[in-house]
Design brief:
Length: 311
Amino acid sequence: MSNLSIKENFEEYFKSLFESNGWDYESMIKSFFTLHKTAIRINTLYANSEEIKRSLEKKGFKLRSIPWIKEEFFIDEKPHPIGSTLEHSLGLIYVQDASSMLPSVILNPKPNEVVLDIAAAPGSKTTHLAILMKNTGVVIANDISVDRLNVLAMNVQRMGLKNVVINKGNGATFDFMTQFDRILVDAPCSASGTIRADETTPMKQWSKKAAQRLARIQLRLLSHAWNFLKPKGILVYSTCSIDPVENELVLHRFLEKNDANILPIEIDVPTKVEPVLGYNNAKLDERIKNALRILPHEDYEGFFIAKLQKP
């Protein structure tokens, strides 16, 4: 069926985590071996979603609306890779996991705002933010990797975006010299929510030690970004990890030193579960209960998203 094998330390750690929180561990493992549904979003700057849907269906694709995101679709059947279509080449669609679309939707940037994507490459969320802003205002797309920024630049160009400024810098130390209306901190993570039978890299690289190392980077990114957020501004923190060490614990440590409101996220995702509020016999900040935790499923990846507002 697959050459994916579940690492013993992964199973020991996550099975204990799932069982202690009343989550279905076996369903998560089953999702690893299930063909993952491709999802796309429409570039509404240049295309009408219904017209694109009809065009793709004439070519043999079978599309299904994503219930919690407008202008987005699952691809249930495909005669060939969606990336080989003219619609993709022209920048009328963008291939992106359904869960990965949520941080941009939840940040909800408005036209003419000044927005920072602090760890932006390869550009999935940057391009989404720019489109939601209707190609107005400015999105500062920052990343530390030149190679990844090159990919981001190609995606920005393909999507016909004019409101994106690309910046190379370490998001944990760079001085952005301005304040932002909204900030996205989609932090680098262990990607434990993205494991699939045909994508084994996260499983191969996962370890508790790696997650703890990444958590330190995540906290630095979040804390540094907070300095550049305007009063009453909105910051979204997200990862594609299902490990509390990279999610709830990062927020808890951030809240110990920063005054922030965590706003409720009113999006109904089928495998949404309550955030972890206790870890290793320690009680975490009660405000974390408003975060969104999504477990892996055949239609979407595992994700964690928190929406913070500066008082």
